Amino acid sequence: MTRKKVKLAFITNDSARKATFKKRKKGLMKKVSELSTLCGIDACAIIYSPYESQPEVWPSTMGAQRVVAQFKRMPEMEQSKKMVNQESFIRQRIAKANEQLKKQCKENREKEVTEVMYQCLTGRGLQNLGVPDLHDLGWVIDQNLKEICKKIEAMKKAAAAGGGGRSGGAGAGAGEVVRKGGGGGGVVEEQKPAVNLGMEAAAAAVQRPQWFTEWMNNPNEQLGFGGDDQMMLPFGDGHNSMWSTAFFP
């Protein structure tokens, strides 16, 4: 059974707070002792609390004074180099959370624009999209085209490698044989070269559609997708300035 994640907030209940303090203080002292023993380092712990009149010190008062004196002999720059107080610790957590939020927002935006791209393939219009939305949509389309081109090149290389190992007879039989009746009652066989229709179709698929190129040259012209369907992004109004150019180049 997994342990429940504890919410990092002040415990308002007095008895629960006191019990948590005693349990975690014991665990902290144990960890400091293990760290000092396993790694052979100088360490000390001094804990003040409202539940005890005297502070608790590990390993001893003399041992703690020796470690503190050793720390004070260091230059001031070295002392504060890795020092973390409550404010700086919270600032680091906030910065990390902001980076995670930015990354998640970019992923969400890309998924939303990808959904719009698929809706366009069904014939929905682009009339209600702003310039930032169209910019992001073009970026997503370009990324998909690059992925398609990479897969086509990989398929071509695989086909070329597989065809090179075949014998000449097998290669000759790859084409289509057409039988035609001759004038003297004989049969004439004509060998047609094999055409890789799958490759040609895939290569044609990566070409930009004509309507997209024309619209990019004349963005004010209404696209004729037919019907009254209009494209709407799945998020609310006022998102353009927040979502677009900060994520996609």
| Order of the strands making up the biggest sheet | 1-2
Helix content: 55-70%
How would you characterize the largest beta sheet? 2 strands, antiparallel
Order of helices and strands: HEEHHHHHEEHHH
So what's the overall shape?
elongated
Helix count from the secondary structure assignment = 9
Structural class: mainly alpha
Poorly predicted ranges (pLDDT <50, ≥5 residues)? Answer: 167-174, 222-232, 234-246
Strand content: 5-15%
Task: Indicate the radius of gyration in whole angstroms.
Answer: 35 Å
- How far the N terminus sits from the C terminus, by CA atoms, comes to 46 Å
Mean pLDDT across the residues is 76
Total number of beta strands? 4
Summarize the structure in words:
About 13% of the residues have low confidence. It contains 9 helices and 4 strands; from the N terminus they run αββαααααββααα. α4 crosses α5. It is elongated, with a radius of gyration of 35 Å. By secondary structure, it is mainly alpha-helical.
List the SSEs and their pairings.
Blueprint (H helix, E strand, L loop, with lengths): L13 H26 L5 E3 L8 E3 L2 H12 L3 H4 L6 H36 L9 H34 L3 H5 L3 E6 L5 E6 L4 H9 L4 H8 L22 H4 L6
Antiparallel strand pairs: 1-2, 3-4
